[in-house]
UniProtKB/TrEMBL annotation, chain A:
It comes from Drosophila virilis. Pfam families: Beta-prop_EIPR1 (PF23609), WD40 (PF00400). GO terms for biological process: protein ubiquitination. The gene is Dvir\GJ13815. This is Uncharacterized protein, isoform A. InterPro entries: Beta-prop_EIPR1-like (IPR059104), EIPR1 (IPR040323), WD40/YVTN_repeat-like_dom_sf (IPR015943), WD40_repeat_dom_sf (IPR036322), WD40_rpt (IPR001680). Belongs to the WD repeat EIPR1 family. WD repeats lie at residues 223-256.
Automatic annotation (TrEMBL), chain B:
Acts as component of the GARP complex that is involved in retrograde transport from early and late endosomes to the trans-Golgi network (TGN). GO terms for cellular component: cytosol; EARP complex; GARP complex; membrane. This is Vacuolar protein sorting-associated protein 51 homolog. Signal peptide: none annotated. It holds the Pfam family VPS51_Exo84_N. InterPro entries: Cullin_repeat-like_dom_sf, Vps51. Component of the Golgi-associated retrograde protein (GARP) complex. Belongs to the VPS51 family. GO terms for biological process: endocytic recycling; Golgi organization; Golgi vesicle transport; lipid transport; lysosomal transport; protein transport; retrograde transport, endosome to Golgi. Keywords: Coiled coil, Golgi apparatus, Lipid transport, Protein transport, Transport. It is found in: Golgi apparatus, trans-Golgi network.
Length: 380, 747
């Protein structure tokens, strides 16, 4: 176990982690710090499996403390950050698109530069002022490079960067709640399916799917998905209509959005809030979850995965190309407890299906592997 | 008169030896010649002397013999002369006797001649008398038979007829007898017809059936026909009995079985025995050789078929009655039936009754077990909803903590007593005065084990499963219910399971210790403990969530950047402490804390809190929180918390809850404080916002320590909270510790 994981430490608190997408074959993760101190950083970590080392490139994030980080699935150099800025007696959340410098001249990195940080190729602050003060997340569309979804306060908007247009797709109506303090959207995510027309937004204890082609068109919703706040969700990349959610009640639930009455799979192994949940892209029976109980859990939901024997052959895409793998029995596979503070993010590598990274508030990044015995059980 | 010399001198052939002087073929010349030829002079001289001497001796011997024989001849002659005289006298006597005998013979012939006539007459007369007597019997026979039949004295009629039959066989040719015989035959044919009708008539008892059968048999009815006829009629009759028994639903089991025994079984036994006597035990000349064997087979078939029918009826009855009526009555009835069938088994050789009443009894036991199991489950469900109801209704009640114990003991005691009652109730199957012994059979033994496995263990498992259902996050049960159920499970684990399993093992004499198939006590205990644990965890989680909710709302809804300088502890903190106080009261009523009683609290009124605070100050004056010593410059360093963490031991915040007051309350506090920490980390604070958090944290520190056994953990969490607030603060200036204390004491 121990030799399986690698620790990388940051000096500041951090709560943003995302894998770097793109064509590369290297296991790369972005992390960003969350500190009120002036110099926040953004690190690009590259994990070398053979040598068991982590190489990092450090960028400065001068805009403010980073709360959320997303990288573009189509452009390895592009990422978006959500950060706080102070404006007088107020704190505003904003978002910016950042572009990494081109990797071209190798010696450029070696040559001593006056700053300790590598400069950005381009920084573009998104214009979210008219949408609201509190940007929750900005999500890249999974296939359309120019399309972004912004969750700002109680609004959900779709930006077309090519046309420089922003359209509000959905809004939680304040009139319905009536209370003076209305709860906004928490976060959201594009659905991998439905031709990229659906955006799943989390609102208090519910999950709502909006059709972005229309305004205020709620395709379906799961009310009271969790007893308390729903913190995070992830779509099963290989099985239509399946998504996993994690919430403040410490539960992890897998839903079939066609049957929203009850989850198809449920575990409550965490003893505090679940901050992130992720399906493994390659073997979606593996679910990674992290929690403020300082633990990262690897759970198997084999019975509801696309790899489960006897699943309806609706997912022809997956079934056609992918050979069938063994399915492990449901339940908790492994607890990773090397973190000493709340773990706000845990992400699978998009390159190697057996590697994942987790980030705790104290700035500790741990890159771990799925234990060998499970790996072999799934492969063979 | 042996010739010694010759013998000794010439030992030669005994016969025809011409040299042996004693032999008849002695040849003197050859002897002499030989002598002269062979012997010397001396020897010849000696021989001559010996011969002379022998000759002399023989001569004198002959003289003596002649003399003696002469004397004997003289005396014989005398005797013969005397005999001649006696015979003459005897002849005259014999002649006299002869004449007398002749006269006797003549007299005798005379007498015989006179008596001859009378004797032959007498002989003829006696012959005639007996013939006449027989004739008379025959002539009156038809009339007699008729009258006997009128009187229904069939047996006598048949007897007489059979008697006459022999006579007819002898004199059947005579025309006068022929008439009588025809009459008799006609009457008997009629009788036979009548008997046959009787035989087939439904209303007959088995007794009369047997009698009629007997008679028909004597009247030369065909045996095999009669045999099958008899079984057919008997079956019909028995069927009627069964139908009659079927209608006796309003009678109780004992009466029902008695009726069955008196009517059905007795008839059946009678039929079987008479059939056996009539057809199986006797040998019939004119039937085939295997007739007896066939008859026995058929009887067996018949017997089993009927017993089967009857027992099916009984079984149906038992099935419909069990669980409703008095089990003891039913068992007494079944016992009686068992005895009767046992007796029936022994009536005839070669008959086997396949079906056993024991099966019915075992089935009844199984059924009763199931019924009891169900009633236990129902009772359990009822008492659970009762507990739930009383908890919900007593929610407003301040003294809720007091009756929790009562609820638990009610639930627990009622359950245990109910199970005990059921176990005792089922003991009735094993009473020693029954004629049957369930445990003797394999199936029965399985059944007895079933009482343990299916009934008791099954029920205990059911309890644990149902209770586990309450622990599910989705079931919205009141928190106190979880606590009550958890405690009940714990009680069961610590005592109940052992008591009950020991009881059942003891009552039913089951060797469970070394059995491979039986569930061991520890398994159930482990299950119970697991359930208790998960219920307790659920309770802690639920209460923790409630506290969390309060804290989260309070942090989220406040504008921490633009707040005023703190003047008091926020109300939500007081509410949290109060909530914890009442939780502690409830928990304490169930789990007495093992700690020193001086620190026990019963209520959380303001005054008592103050005393505890002073107490706390007095007993732990050395304690100062880490953060209260921070200077602003120290706080500037972002490493402080990391360094601090480096030197402090890692505190495992989320461990499993133990069954003690402190652990339970601690679990709730941990969840609450952790939530507060997470909420604080999501916000940005101004100077006064931070100071408000400082005040709140101090207030919590002042009040929470008394709930827990290890206050370091609380302090650690509070440090984390304040540390995080410092990190999230734009202008980290803490309040003076004294000012904080003053605000907190002010409340």
């Amino acid at each position: 176990m121990e030799e399986n994981s690698l620790i990388y430490g940051l000096e500041l608190q951090a709560r943003a982690l995302t894998p770097q997408y793109g064509e590369g074959n290297d296991v790369c993760f972005f992390i960003a710090t969350n500190s009120l101190k002036p110099t926040n950083q953004l690190h690009l970590l590259q994990y070398d499996e053979e040598q068991g080392t982590i190489q990092s490139k450090i960028f400065e994030h001068a805009l403010g403390e980073v709360w959320k980080l997303n990288s573009c699935p189509n452009d390895a150099r592009l990422l978006v950050t959500v950060y706080n800025v102070q404006k007088g007696a107020q704190v505003l959340s904003q978002a910016a698109l950042l572009t990494l410098p081109a990797d071209g001249p190798k010696d450029a990195a070696d040559e001593p530069i006056k700053s300790e940080y590598i400069p950005w190729a381009k920084i573009e602050v998104l214009d979210t002022a008219e949408l609201g003060e509190r940007v929750k997340t900005v999500e890249f569309h999974p296939s359309q490079e120019q399309t972004l979804a912004c969750v700002v306060g109680n609004k959900l908007a779709v930006m077309q960067r090519a046309e420089a247009s922003t359209r509000v797709v959905a809004e939680v109506s304040s009139s319905s709640s009536g209370a003076k303090h209305m709860s906004p959207f928490t976060t959201g995510k594009w659905s991998h399916h439905h031709q990229g027309h659906q955006f799943l937004a989390l609102h208090d204890t519910s999950v709502r799917a909006y059709d972005v082609r229309d305004t205020q068109h709620c395709a379906w919703s799961i009310e009271d998905a969790h007893g308390q706040f729903v913190r995070d969700l992830d779509c099963n990349p290989n099985k239509q209509c399946h998504l996993v959610t994690g919430g403040d009640d410490g539960c992890l639930k897998v839903w079939d959005c066609r049957m929203v009455k009850a989850p198809v799979f449920e575990r409550s192994d965490h003893s505090h809030w679940v901050w992130s949940v992720r399906f493994n892209t390659f073997h979606d029976q593996l679910i990674l979850s992290s929690s403020s109980d300082c633990k990262v859990l690897l759970t198997c939901a084999g019975s509801v995965s696309s790899e489960a024997p006897g699943t309806e052959s609706g997912e022809a895409i997956a079934a056609g190309s992918q050979e069938r793998h063994k399915v492990l029995s449901d339940g908790l596979l492994q607890t990773f407890d090397q973190h000493e503070d709340s773990v706000y993010c845990a992400e699978w590598s998009n390159v190697d299906p057996w590697i994942f990274a987790s980030l705790s508030y104290d700035g500790r990044v741990i890159i771990s592997k799925v234990p060998k015995q499970y790996k072999y059980q799934i492969i063979f | 008169m042996n010739k010694v010399t010759a013998k000794t001198t010439y030992p030669m052939d005994e016969k025809d030896n011409p040299f042996d002087m004693d032999s008849s073929s002695f040849d003197a010349d050859r002897y002499l010649e030989k002598l002269l030829k062979d012997c010397s002079l001396k020897q010849i001289m000696d021989t001559e002397a010996a011969v002379v001497k022998d000759t002399q001796t023989l001569h004198s011997d002959m003289q003596t013999l002649v003399y003696e024989n002469y004397n004997k001849f003289i005396s014989a002659t005398d005797t013969i002369r005397k005999m001649k005289d006696d015979f003459k006298q005897m002849e005259t006597d014999v002649n006299l006797l002869m004449t007398k005998m002749q006269s006797i013979t003549t007299f005798s012939e005379q007498i015989t001649g006179t008596l001859q006539g009378t004797r032959s007459q007498l002989c003829r007369l006696s012959e005639k008398h007996s013939l006449l007597k027989r004739l008379q019997f025959l002539s009156t026979l038809p009339a007699k038979l008729k009258s006997l039949i009128e009187e229904q004295n069939y047996a006598q009629a048949v007897q007489d007829y059979l008697h006459a039959q022999k006579v007819f066989a002898q004199y059947g040719r005579q025309p006068s007898f022929d008439g009588i015989q025809r009459d008799c035959d006609a009457i008997m044919a009629e009788l036979k017809e009548r008997l046959r009708q009787d035989f087939q008539r439904a209303g007959n008892t088995a007794q009369s059936l047997t009698e009629i059968g007997e008679l028909l048999l004597q009247l030369d009815e065909k045996t095999s026909d009669l045999a099958s006829e008899m079984l057919r009629c008997a079956a019909k009759r028995l069927h009627e009995q069964i139908v009659m028994l079927q209608d006796q639903t309003e009678r109780d089991m004992l009466e029902f079985v008695d009726m069955g025994i008196d009517g059905f079984l007795n008839d059946l036994a009678l039929v079987v025995t008479s059939y056996f006597d009539m057809f199986v035990a006797k040998h019939y000349e004119h039937e085939r050789d295997d007739f007896q064997e066939n008859a026995l087979n058929e009887l067996n078939l018949f017997l089993n078929e009927n017993i089967d029918k009857y027992l099916t009826l009984v079984q149906d009855r038992v099935e419909s009655d069990i669980g409703y009526g008095d089990t003891q009555v039913m068992l007494r009835a079944l016992d009686r039936l068992h005895r009767r069938l046992q007796a029936m088994r022994n009536i005839c050789r070669g008959l086997q009754v396949q079906r056993n009443t024991l099966d019915i009894i075992i089935a009844a036991a199984h059924q009763l077990c199931d019924a009891h199991g169900k009633s236990l489950r129902d009772h359990f469900a009822d008492s659970l909803s009762a507990v739930r109801l009383s908890l919900v209704s007593a929610k407003s009640d301040l003294a809720a903590g007091v009756n929790l114990n009562d609820l638990i003991s009610n639930l627990y005691v009622a359950m245990v007593e109910k199970i005990k009652g059921v176990l005792q109730d089922l003991m009735i199957f094993l009473r020693t005065d029954w004629s049957f012994n369930i445990k003797a059979e394999h199936k029965g033994a399985l059944c007895v084990e079933g009482i343990r496995e299916n009934l008791l263990i099954g029920f205990l498992r059911h309890i644990s499963k149902v209770m586990c259902g309450f622990a599910d996050a989705s079931s919205s049960s009141p928190p106190n219910l979880l606590l009550v159920l958890s405690k009940t499970c714990l009680e069961l684990e610590q005592q109940g399971v052992h008591i009950l399993i020991a009881l059942v093992d003891d009552l039913y004499e089951i060797e469970s210790e070394n059995s491979a198939t039986l569930t061991h006590e520890t398994e159930i205990c482990a299950e119970m403990r697991e359930t208790a644990q998960s219920l307790l965890d659920a309770y802690v989680r639920l209460q923790g969530t409630n506290i969390s909710q309060m804290l989260r709302k309070s942090v989220e809804t406040r504008d921490w950047l633009n707040c005023l300088e703190p003047r008091s502890v926020r109300a939500v903190m007081k509410r949290v402490v109060e909530e914890l106080g009442s939780i502690e009261t409830v928990v304490a009523s169930l789990y007495e804390s093992a700690g020193n009683p001086g620190f026990r609290t019963t209520a959380s009124s303001d005054s008592s809190r103050k005393t505890y605070f002073s107490n706390f100050n007095a007993s732990k004056p050395q304690y100062r929180s880490n953060w209260s010593n921070y200077t602003p410059s120290q706080l500037e360093s972002s490493y402080v918390s990391n360094i601090h963490r480096l030197f402090s031991e890692r505190v495992d915040i989320f461990t499993s809850v133990e069954f003690s007051k402190a652990s339970i309350v601690m679990g709730i506090i941990k969840i609450g404080l952790k939530t507060l920490l997470e909420c604080v980390r999501l916000r940005t604070f101004s100077k006064f916002g931070l100071q408000q958090i400082q005040v709140d944290a101090h207030y919590l520190q002042m009040n929470l320590w008394r709930f827990v056994s290890d206050e370091n953990l609380v302090n650690f969490l509070l440090d984390e909270i304040l540390g995080s607030a410092v990190h999230r603060c734009l202008e980290s200036v803490l309040m003076e510790p004294n000012a904080v204390e003053i605000i907190c004491e002010r409340g």
